[in-house]
Amino acid sequence: MSQLIGAPLLVGAVAYTPNVVPIWEGIRDYFDEPDTAMDFVLFSNYGRLVDALRAGMIDIAWNTNLAYARTVLQTDGHVRALAMRDTDAAFSTVFVAAAGSGWSGPGDIGARRLALGSADSAHAAILPLHYLRAAGVNVDHMQLKRFDSDIGKHGDTGRSELDAIDAVLAGDADVAAIGITVWENIGRGELMPGMLEQVWQTETYSHCMFTALDTLPEAVSAPWVAKLLAMDWEVPAHRRILELEGLTQWVEPHLDGYAGLFEAIAEQGVDSRW
Questions:
Q1: Cα separation of 151 and 118, whole Å?
Q2: What pTM does this model have?
């Protein structure tokens, strides 16, 4: 772990796909200056990533919302949220059904068979049940079909959401809960024209976050965060990295967007190993 000003920071992330390697190589090259130099290390799952941050093996973790919440809970709040993508500041879950269903709103979902993504996916499993419960649906009596396709990756691969969609199209489930990015990129796009329709969408919440422990000196983290926030969509070299990572701008933390997830973790007794 870096402790000295000028020493390279070590950033950890999860290798949910081989494509993350060129993304992080590009990010490392962008930070290649004396005050912001960094390197990265990849982990197979978020449990290991959070453990490494807590143990001081890395300086900063690129966490999902569940990994961020886990870090907060397991350190009694001794963390520092650094920055997030603009797309993470306004994430949501979309409930979809086969086109022509005519269903609308949480009441209609509560009476149907619901397909959920991996149990450790906040956007495709944990928060869908939380927001349905908050809307008055008795989720304890719902017929749920779970697809634990990528446990450990917190839904990053998108595989479990595609499995949930397949279940709806095959008639094995009535409604699927998927993240807004899957809906925008696949569900209502050219890949599945006219096959699905939106039944309901949750309120927005926060997703991924660069996270450090509060023991990381501000003098070390501040220059790195400032350079991250300075990445500019109008600069072609920057845009390549931003496009690969799915954002147009890095933004300061939106911590109020995690309130629903902390409530959901307490309600559902989410496995702390995730």
A1: 6
A2: 0.94
